[in-house]
Amino acid sequence: MVVPANIPSYQITELKSTGHNHKEFEFVLFEDFAKDIDHLLLPHRHNFYMLIFVSQGDGSHNIDFKNYPLKPNRQFFMSPGQIHSWNQLENVSGFVVMFTRSFISVSNHHPDLNKFLFFNTTQYQPYSDLEKGTLESVVNIFELMKHEYFSNADFRESILRSYLNVLLHLLARGYTGSKTAWANQQGVQTIRKFENLINEKYRTHRSAKDYAELLNLTPNYLNALCKKVTGHSSGELIRERIMLEAKRLLVHTNQSVSEIAFNLKFEDNSYFCRFFKKYCGKSPAEFRDTHKFKMS
Hints:
Blueprint: E1 9-10, H1 12-15, E2 25-29, H2 30-33, E3 45-46, E4 49-63, E5 66-69, E6 74-78, E7 84-99, H3 101-105, E8 127-129, H4 132-149, H5 156-173, H6 185-201, H7 208-214, H8 219-230, H9 234-252, H10 257-263, H11 269-280, H12 284-295
Parallel strand pairs: 1-3
Antiparallel strand pairs: 2-7, 4-5, 4-6, 4-7, 6-8
Helix pairs in contact: 4-5, 6-8, 7-8, 9-12
């Protein structure tokens, strides 16, 4: 496998050409999406959200070092920045919806994407196996979206936005990634804001105190809330995000360990190596060798 200097990142118009050239929203049948996707068989990321519903088919979806087989009625969730690739897609069918945060934020009654646990890139599983009651409703909305998307009717974009809103809430209702966290919805909202801040600032903000100040909370309260909602301390969530990006760069780019340490704003290469080995159990070089062999 050829390893690029940097991980490819795609916008909606670059990921899959459909002829519509929509920058904010795209709807594609999974069977059409699976055609001519050699560039998506290699690890990549994108700057938008993605919902992939599998009706049938064989193959697998590799998301941040974990391989998930395709199964009937499996719903995948992708967030901006996640690294993933597709493996040996055969006889697939289903639906693919791609949208930006700005697309759904236009409405006065738009949902806060922070509240959807399935868009959490580190704490919850990136898929849900839909059960009968939720399945029928979700497939119905996908079919309505398909009909509306390929029409040229008035108010098409507004209706698609409304369908997307309904779809996200139906998927949240049937999400199997975590049943307990929803019990503390207010706490979930705060932790999702914390996680979004980590995604934005993990290269420069390493202490829980920094984030607590940005959230107008005390460090102790933030830490207690993190443990209640996720089972991890605030410091662990910060470290997990740094480690995830380090692993991504080690496996999916040809940057040297020193370059990765510099990229992640570590003081020096030796400190980065000690940090990585402490929380991974392997040195950066050992981790790279092990996982590049598995990915090749």
